[in-house]
Amino acid sequence: MPEGRRRVLITGAAGRIGQDLTGFLKDRYDLRLHFNRTVPEDPAVDDYLIADIADFDQIRPAMDGIDSVVHLAGEPAVTTPWDRVNRANIEGLYNVYESARQAGVKRVVFASTNHVMGMNDRDENWPVYSSQPVRPDSLYGVSKAFGETLGRHYYDRYGMSFINLRIGAYGPEPRDEIARYMWLSPRDFGQLVWRCLESDVGYATYYAISGNTSRTWDISDAVVDLGYGPVDNADEHLPPRYRKIDAAGES
């Protein structure tokens, strides 16, 4: 391993986002990958461990020697029952943050969600800014709002840096009308994460979406604070039936 490189733990690295992110970051940082129920047959890096984040004693050793954590692990579905949301996204998240604090981790990048502000989308209350009060659309959204708030506590109380990324419609390409507004491409997310890891921001929340022309979420703070420069735009990749038609009849 090259000396002096930052050591980054990615929790939930077996998921779709985790696997993509590992590919983007493995040449930039020395990665440690965390897995739980699913373990790849051939992990992308040699440094990995298996642990249930809801068990403090299992996840605590993952933090040893780590500079920064990208926390992706947890229940990802809006319809997840509360008992599972509570175990992974409340108790498990606390274990990750507290074990990181005990190990001297300097920064956590937290995978939050658009569902923290989902009621704004329901009511078409746009544009949506990161400074607005949270309006979760589900218990899953509530759990992610908790993660953002707990990070604020750790920043104020212990001086750890926390950056929350409210992830939009993640995928290799936009697929529907909703994606026009909130698509996030893998390479834009990869860029956004490494910019978070290398920034001097103490605590902040940003919307994680690509540079979609029709976006309804504001990303100007990520552009200014982090130097984020999205390269993808949903309006350039949508199937023809979802593209907007201008007054001249051209898409």
Notes on the structure:
This protein is of the alpha/beta class and 251 residues long. 35% of the residues lie in helices and 17% in strands. It has one domain: NAD(P)-binding Rossmann-like Domain (Rossmann fold, 3-Layer(aba) Sandwich), CATH 3.40.50. The chain has helices at 16-25, 56-59, 82-103, 118-122, 139-158, 177-182, 186-198, 220-226, and strands spanning 7-11, 30-35, 48-50, 68-71, 107-113, 161-167, 169-170, 183-184, 203-208. Helix 3 links the parallel strand 4 and strand 5 (107-113). The longest helix has 22 residues, at 82-103. It is globular, with a radius of gyration of 18 Å. The relative contact order is 0.12.
Strands ordered across the widest β-sheet? 3-2-1-4-5-6-9
Count of extended strands: 9
| General form | globular
Oligomerization: single chain
**CATH secondary-structure class:** Alpha Beta
Q: What is the chain-wise order of helices and strands? A: EHEEHEHEHHEEHEHEH
CATH topology: Rossmann fold
Sequence stretches where pLDDT stays below 50 over 5 or more residues: 245-251
What's the name of the CATH homologous superfamily?
NAD(P)-binding Rossmann-like Domain
* Mean pLDDT reading: 94
Largest sheet: 7 strands, parallel
Radius of gyration: 18 Å
Spatial separation of the terminal alpha carbons: 49 Å
Overall tally of structural domains:
1
Q: What is the number of helices?
A: 8
Overall SS class = alpha/beta
| Helical fraction | 25-40%
Strand content: 15-25%
Q: From the 3D coordinates, which CATH architecture would you assign?
A: 3-Layer(aba) Sandwich
